[in-house]
Amino acid sequence: MVVGDISTGTDVAVIGAGPGGYVAAIRAAQQGLDTTLIEKDAYGGVCLNHGCIPSKAFIHGADVAHEAGNAEELGIYADPAVDVERMQRWKSGVVDRLTGGVEKLCKANGVNLVEGTATFADENKLRVAHEGAGQGSESIEFDHAVVATGSRPIQVPGFEFDGERVLSSRDLLAMESLPERLVVVGAGYIGMELSTMLAKLGTDVTVVEMLDDVLPGYEEDVQRIVRKRAEELGVEFHFGEGASGWEETAEGGVAVETETEAGETSEYLADQVLVAVGRAPVTDTLELENAGVEPNEDGFIETDHQARTDVDSIFAVGDVAGEPMLAHKASKEGIVAAEAAAGEPAALDYQAVPAAVFTEPEIATVGLTEDEAAAEGFEPAVGEMPFNASGRALTTTHTEGFVRIVADEETGFVLGGQIVGPDASELIAELALAVEMGATLEDVAATIHTHPTLAEATMEAAENAMGQAIHTLNR
Questions:
Q1: Most buried one in 35, 214, 250, 427, CB count within 10 A?
Q2: Termini Cα distance of the chain
Q3: In the chain, count of helices (H) and strands (E)?
Q4: What is the pLDDT of residue 133?
Q5: Is residue 238 flagged as an active site residue?
Q6: What is the pLDDT of residues 228-239, one digit of tens each?
Q7: d(Cα 315, Cα 345) in Å, to the nearest integer?
Q8: What's 126-138 look like in SS3?
Q9: Coil, strand, or helix at residue 270?
Q10: How far apart are CA 368 and CA 375, in angstroms?
Q11: Among the options 66, 328, 451, 471, which is catalytic?
């Protein structure tokens, strides 16, 4: 122990106050455990401060501006002006309210809050370095620790983030003015969300992607709808091209060079380049080797059904524990880890983890696709309801997409669902509940849905899978 160092003890030490960490800390405290939450940056983690919430705030603002300026069909004529600085202040107010709420909730539940950077000394002790001159450090001994340090944007070689010409998603969401032209490297969910948002706000967006379509991992008809809508908004796509380098132009912009597998090169000019090729877990700063925890070759910490690592006293939740890298999945893992630390028989069940992409239209999925169900030995019964047959969708002018439900033909049990269309991120909750509770097609179809609503499409999709749809042709 160094001079001035202090040593304390706690039942549960949680490293990182994002959606996995702060939830784990609160639940552990609710279980009667003395709980310490360590955070080096800001409560709420990347999600609340630099990711989920800021991006959805800007996406909403872009939607309002775009709809107001494109409502001639409704007899509404407007030419909205966008004040990005004011939008940024509004977004920051939303973030501050939520992060402040997280801190208050932690304190109200009796969680001890510690600011600093934690590293492992051994499997039952942390060292926490405090920021600032003369702040020193402390040792915290624990019975259980929860690693919830999240993830960071992946950097492409030659495209190191500088916050000026080469941007991460965090840099972009802190912008005070809009770039006139932007090259986006990557057409995954982050790249597509931000590309469509900026296109609505008037930026000329060019997307380069090594693969042959947007949103890898999603079904072709889902990809097609989202790509087509983005192209209608003015987004230009170049598939099969990898970003190989960039240089500053005489005008102060950037020239981004790409290369195909065949060696063909292209150049795209813009004011800035956004690199959005995914995220990597933050596990390299923790000195995990001192605790006997070894991440896999991708940097993730492998865990069991209780979010426990190979070291019984240490849990890992959220992005550091692997895909899917979703805030709500992190929170669920945090709850299970806290309850397991308290001796409860909690366990993880990933069969009903929904995911959403906030493009236009939105995408939301849960459970199995038709192909996945067939691969697992089911005889899939599939039903769909297109939104262009939905009265409510027609009244909003947003008619792209569909609700698709996948069930087991023999038993009728709902296995999954895919929604692409307006408010898909909200509508998916019904299908997630159906998968979680073991509902059947008949359960969903027999549930009276309010008219006129978008949610009726879920009921009609279930009817369609049973061959008795009323408002769409049966398959």
A1: 35
A2: 72
A3: 13, 22
A4: 56
A5: no
A6: 999 999 999 999
A7: 15
A8: EEEECCCCCCCEE
A9: strand
A10: 10
A11: 451
